[in-house]
Amino acid sequence: MMPIGIGVGAASMNGVVLGINYNLLFSSGGTSVSDTISSMLSTIYGGASASTGPSTFASTGNPLVDLQLAQKNETADVALEAKQPQVVQDINAFTKAVSNAKTIQDALGNPNVQKVLLTVSGLSNFIGETTLVQKALMSDPSDPNSLANQMNNAALINAVQTYNFAQNGLGALQNPKILSTLTNGYAEVLWRQSLEQSTPGLSNALAFLQQASSIKSANDILTNLVNFQVVTTALGIPQDIINQDQTAQQQAINSHLDVSKLQDPKFVTSLTDQYLLTMQANNQSSSASGTSLDGLAVQAASLIV
Q1: How far apart are CA 37 and CA 164, in angstroms?
Q2: Residue range 207-229: average pLDDT?
Q3: Is the pTM of this model over 0.90?
Q4: Secondary structure of the chain as H, E, C letters
Q5: How far is residue 231's CA from residue 222's CA, in Å, rounded to a whole number?
Q6: Within a domain: 1
Q7: Are residues 170 and 208 located together in one domain of the fold?
Q8: Rg of the Cα atoms in the chain
Q9: Of the residues 169, 195, 221, the one at which a domain ends
Q10: 185: closest CA among 207, 157, 170, 167?
Q11: Per the domain annotation, does 157 fall within a domain?
Q12: Is residue 93 included in any domain, yes or no?
């Protein structure tokens, strides 16, 4: 059994998302958006094409230093990303489509809306799955039998709860504050993806540092791809635990990690550092400074306290 929110949300073939009862798509059937939408950015986990626009970021060969530089330069680099012609085109098409939409169903069916909204929400693997997008995002977040809740995709559930399109309708997208947050968030996602070109794992590291304190249980790790990748990679937990049942997955996490330690910023930093060093060891023959893989492994092993 795949971890909730990973197997169901990410696995698709020939336009069919595995594990979903598609009969639900054709059956009949608030949270303040402005106060909660910014939390979406800390649960982003992928799919957006990496940007090739200019950036002040350049890898030093040391992923820990790269993380510090990315954090320092984030505001400036995201602003540069937002000025790239393709990003500007995407944002203009998105805002125009939202403005011209007559209903929330129209908006969610528009590819320009899907591109920005789903990318920011960490759901870019669903872009083009119009019927699924409309039905899932229009789900009632309080109904345990709704499509979104049955899919058990953490990012999808977060989006449904945040926007609550079923109750708020098109107004949830046409609110100027929401539009601003989404357009700014789109540039940030693309910027984070661009970091992966030079420093594998850096995008996940930034996201994990922001959201780690919200992790209260092993299930919060298993239902979020960023959390899952960082924790399993850093602690050497085989990622094929996704083939086990949910109880076994939770036991695998709990046997390696005291989840309560994620409330300690120093521990979170050390875990994130170990993740980055492991990613470097897995993706490069050596660091730019000539540090051996054995040296990196020793350094990584000393980080968790």
Answers
A1: 11
A2: 91
A3: no
A4: CCCCCCHHHHCEECCEECCCCHHHHHCCCCCCHHHHHHHHHHHCCCCCCCCCCCCCCCCCCCHHHHHHHHHHHHHHHHHHHHCCHHHHHHHHHHHHHHHHCCCHHHHHHCHHHHHHHHHHCCCHHHCCCHHHHHHHHCCCCCCCCCHHHHHCCHHHHHHHHHHCHHHHCCHHHHCHHHHHHHHHHHHHHHHHHHHCCCCCCHHHHHHHHHHHHHCCCHHHHHCCHHHHHHHHHHHCCCHHHHHCCHHHHHHHHHHHCCHHHHHCHHHHHHHHHHHHHHHHHHHCCCCCCCCCHHHHHHHHHCCCC
A5: 10
A6: no
A7: no
A8: 20
A9: 195
A10: 207
A11: yes
A12: yes
Do 177 and 206 fall into the same domain?
no
Do 256 and 237 contact (CB within 8 A), yes or no?
A: yes
pLDDT more than 90, % of the chain: 54
Give whole-number Cα distances, 69 to 50, 58, 76, 148, in Å.
Answer: 19, 9, 11, 37
Distance in angstroms (rounded) separating the CA atoms of residues 303 and 99: 50
Q: Report the amino acid identity of residue 160.
A: V
- Specify whether 73 is located in the same domain as 135: yes
- Tokens standing for 170? 């098109």
Judged against a pLDDT cut of 70, whether residue 208 lies above it is answered with yes
- Bigger pLDDT: 210 vs 20: 210
Same domain (yes/no): 141, 167: yes
Look-up of token digits 């007559």: 102
Output the pLDDT for position 277: 95
d(CA 164, CA 176): 17
- Owning domain of residue 67: 7-195
Across all residues in the chain, what is the average pLDDT? 79
Per cent of the chain over pLDDT 70 is 74
Q: Are 162 and 40 in contact (CB under 8 A)?
A: yes
Dihedral, CA of residue 205, residue 207, residue 208 and residue 213, to nearest 10:
150
